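[audit] Reproducing an earlier prediction to check determinism. Same input, same settings, fresh worker. If the tokens differ from the archived copy the diff job will pick it up downstream; this log only records the rerun itself.
[audit] input (182 residues):
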Amino acid sequence: MKKLTLTVQSALDEERERAVLEDPELADLLNDKFLLDYQKQRMKEMLLQTNPSIKFEFLDAIDKEHKTVTIIVHIYEDNVEACRTMNTCLIQLCKLYVNVKFCAIVGSRAGMSSQFKADGVPALLVYKSGNLVGNFIRLSDDLGNDFQPEDVQDYLVEHGLLEDKSCTPLLVKVTSQDSDSD
């Protein structure tokens, strides 16, 4: 007895497959690494189109920093309550995390779209070794409009971008405080 097997592929799937085979550029677009590289390049291009001094400050803050330093960039708008709250929280966190570089940039000066300025802020970009390792937009969806520095700290610790200070042994805390006072 012979068995017959029939597999069926939708016309849409066939068309996608054909398009990928025929167009190597489309295959590149579907690559996640390509999308991340494109996002970084697009951010640099947007900064070039606006104020050149802001562009260089932003890029220097990331590219000229030591590779072990984590850089947290807050993209904000002055007229958004959650952005003002985030700025206050980050000022407090920079006192706790002296080995983390905290920066802030106004979205309208960085060439962000009007939709991003209205709906995407507050946003945090986190860089390490010049690479984007965290990208969080519209943080008010997760944190609300009225949050505390501890909430932001917990959020960044939860995503592995800040060290959990509560897990640092007391001996290490005392030793680092002694060396800071020298």
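[audit] rerun output stored. Observation attached for the diff report: The chain has one domain: 25-172.
[audit] end
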